[in-house]
Amino acid sequence: MFTGSIVALITPMDIKGNICKISLKKLIKYHINSGTKAIVVVGTTGESATLTYNERIKVIMYALDYSENKIPIIAGTGFNATSKSIAMISILENSGIIGCLNITPYYNRPTQEGLYQHFKKIANNTKLPQLLYNVPIRTGCDLLPETICKLSKIKNIIGIKEATGDLSRINKIKNLINKKFFLISGDDKTSFEFMQLGGDGVISVTANIAAKTMKKFCDYIKEKKFDKAKKINQNLIKLHNQLFIESNPIPIKWAAKKIGLINSDKIRLPLTPLTKLNKKIIKITLKELNLI
To answer: pLDDT tens-digit profile of 167-196?
Structure first.
């Protein structure tokens, strides 16, 4: 459940900016039918930063309901206050989620010792599996391999979403940890190399609109059919890059609306709608990939 193509799901909203349950249900059905291995809800791509605490809980519960136990749900439970993560996870303890994704605390920039104590305290207050999430470009702090190794010794810290794009991290982490520890890419454009080097899967933005293709891509790598996986990667690389032409999830929400997966590409401030120029650029790529 922590391998292969895992989608970093967008949070669909109506034109007034409220959670759109109709589109959310449609998205989850799409991923069930496409063979996506699991869904991460209310992560970065799910606009967790602009959802209220209660909205985050609601989206997770809606996702569990709509999944009908046909696809595993991983909840984004990261905050820059340790106590807030613990409080949210306590509500979700027996909800049916298969695990939590916890981002490194943003803005307050803790030391490596602070990061260790943060994740340790969260893990010690739950039985749920915990995935670490490292994305320094967004958080202002970097969870180093040595700290990851220390954290891996805690029983229910079972892996990490590495979104640095630094492929040298994989061997560093693998060489430090002598047990099964899931290494999951958080960067679509380097996911091919990441998994070739021993990564277990990808938490993908692109999978929001190309779920079957991303599943096939990951399956080929698992089967060591690297030539076939490379061909898919070459076809998708332009899309991978263009989905970050503006801050995520601006482009992916517009693309999902364009191909008919959601009813509105509404996004909350301080993020703003995709520009006309970038709509034209992405539209060309969607046509080339037969997504529209």
So the answer is: 999 999 999 998 999 999 999 999 999 999
